[in-house]
Specification:
Two copies of one chain form a homodimer.
Chain A lengths: L9 H13 L11 E5 L2 E11 L11 H17 L4 E11 L6 H16 L3 E9 L4 E10 L13 E5 L4 H10 L6 H8 L5 H9 L4 E4 L4 H12 L2 E5 L9 H8 L3 H7 L6 E5 L5 H11 L3 E8 L3 E6 L2 E3 L9
Parallel strand pairs in A: 3-4, 8-11
Antiparallel strand pairs in A: 1-2, 2-5, 3-5, 6-9, 6-10, 7-9, 8-10, 11-12
Helix pairs in contact in A: 2-3, 2-6, 4-5, 8-9
Chain lengths: 321, 321
Amino acid sequence: MSHLDLGPGPEFDRIRSIEKALGPRAGELGDDCALVLVGDEFIALSIDLSVEGVHFRREWLSLEEIGWKAAAGALSDLAAEAARPEGLLASVGVPKAGDPGEVANSMRGVGEAAASVGGRVLGGDLSSAPVLTIDIAVVGRTARPVRRQGAQVGDGIWVTGELGGARAALASWSAGETPITTARRSFAHPVPRIGAGLWLAERGAHALIDLSDGLAGDAGHLAAASRVMIELALDRVPLHGAVPAAALKTSQLPAVFAALGGEGYELLVAMPRQFTSADAGALEREMGIPLTLIGRVSAGSGAVCRLQGREVALTGFDHFA
Amino acid sequence: MSHLDLGPGPEFDRIRSIEKALGPRAGELGDDCALVLVGDEFIALSIDLSVEGVHFRREWLSLEEIGWKAAAGALSDLAAEAARPEGLLASVGVPKAGDPGEVANSMRGVGEAAASVGGRVLGGDLSSAPVLTIDIAVVGRTARPVRRQGAQVGDGIWVTGELGGARAALASWSAGETPITTARRSFAHPVPRIGAGLWLAERGAHALIDLSDGLAGDAGHLAAASRVMIELALDRVPLHGAVPAAALKTSQLPAVFAALGGEGYELLVAMPRQFTSADAGALEREMGIPLTLIGRVSAGSGAVCRLQGREVALTGFDHFA
């Protein structure tokens, strides 16, 4: 239940109804990962379902890319917990009439994503299904998990990488065009920010989440879990190079376009106020990942986005809207 | 990859192609659970995909039963590893146009199955999908896992419970009839044999597997993993009460009908030769679960089924045949 904590809309209605139906049979839901304490460390677990026609289309991505993207999206939940990946389990459903090679090709992408962060494919299941369906359960370990709760008034809100590339690619495909290479790569080949998650945890991160539903929605989750207000200055959001042109076509301002885009799997983190831009520069030098201050934590509730000082209302993606 | 070790047919061809595609990016696949050593115990993990129209039909089962069956089938892999359940993660895909209550109702069944063995729902994911799709990742702990490998020449081969009930229910539905209550229950409400798995491990079980593909196929997996031959006397197989009538309609002998039926989730176990029927009686007294000697381990390879002393050839279920 990676989106369990708030928000209006049919998807959250369904999730709330699950919570109600489960009652005490549910663990502590609502963070990026579930945690199980074993000895003196935590096992971090998360699961992520990718369905053809919902999360991807075969016209857009190769089977390897479909597998990579499904696995990378799940592994991103470990990054958002500051956990070190052990590996993953993959359930794959494929049409009975499909090419027998499509399972192996999509699993090759899954395996590559796991290997890219030091993990392995630990197990899986295989079934026929009406459309290509990949469900990934990830397993990691951490002695010091960083949760969504924990953001404190005065913290800075930082984001890794650049936002909006995946949405720019989606916008191109939807318009019947070919996305530019770097935007296509953001969508097809997201990189789970495992190293950055661990780096931020070591430097005292108070709260961490990955951007899967869009900056505005996910900042709202962080605010709700931490019982604080998060104020974002959209002017500061680092934009992917494809954003300005893509935003123009939607008549949205570039920063709004980027803030509404999901699936980039960058990390949004609340760092103690002592953490400076000079500190952030070390992450870029060490790992090549920019880290940008885009907001702050204050008393209150919800996520407030401002552009040139004026508040703008934004909402994330809803599977059932 | 709960069926990774052997057998002909399109399903195993696909699984072998996955193994080849993954190469060193895969862990040690091919047992009921993956194991991750943490401190001085193992975390046992498995994943199990259930798809509407493949594993169940809504005309046959309530949504709660669909959820229960999906979760129980996955939890059965923990039983087959002699692991104690910690909980599970559930991915649910439902048609966008469906009743919003169907997610909560199927998750209620998932939660009940988890709670029935002392586990909890630790997390999950939700998406739209063309048909109801439930993928369950289970998490357990064990200091002494029992693998499929380990059966030794001279061991007795024992089975819990009675076989063929789930297949009898399926046969009734397929013929447009209503299954008798106890057979329907075998299919709709399988009980993961967690307690029996732990009990058998404590008494020195050499090798353990759960029956998901059918006795003949799963005995073959155990034989392959242990590099032995398993000889089964089908005459000894304990039959569910619905089997004789159901078998008659298929022109199969009752024991053959039962041995070919999958999804009963009983345990098949290789016990040291010192383990006797008197010992087995204690399991029935303590947990109400019969344990029956149905074969033995000898030198060689493969599973051999005999009926009245004559060899009969049987094969399990193939998702892609």
